[in-house]
Amino acid sequence: MNKYKLLGLSLLCDALGYVSLIFPPFDFLWAPLSAYIMTKLYKGTPGKIAAVVSFIEEALPMLDVIPTFTIMWVYTYVFVTNKPIKKHS
Predict the structure, then answer these.
(1) Higher model confidence: residue 19 or residue 87?
(2) Rounded to an integer, what distance in angstroms lies between the CA atom of residue 58 and that of residue 64?
């Protein structure tokens, strides 16, 4: 998937998380669903860790304002992909 389409999808998922600020019972559905979506969008160990964080963040009250999906996108495409490659001597 194109990284900018993934960013758009991440922003959409974060926006869905804000629904529970208006309708709190939405968290019961969204918390496990957000964790599942996170593992599908971001593969490997970082995706699994982000899924756990996303689940906890969505399940606990008042933490819904944290844009977990967007933070994961920034981590993946800004911090990890721009690391310099070490040369073995």
Answers:
(1) 19
(2) 6
- Residue 88 included in any domain: no
Q: Could you give the number of structural domains in the chain?
A: 1
- On whether residue 71 sits in a domain, the answer given is yes
Both tokens of 25, joined, read 């019972």
Closest by Cα among 78, 74, 82, 34 to 55: 34
d(CA 28, CA 20): 9
Domain containing 68 equals: 3-80
Rounded Cα distance, 68 and 71, in Å: 5
Model confidence, pTM: 0.85
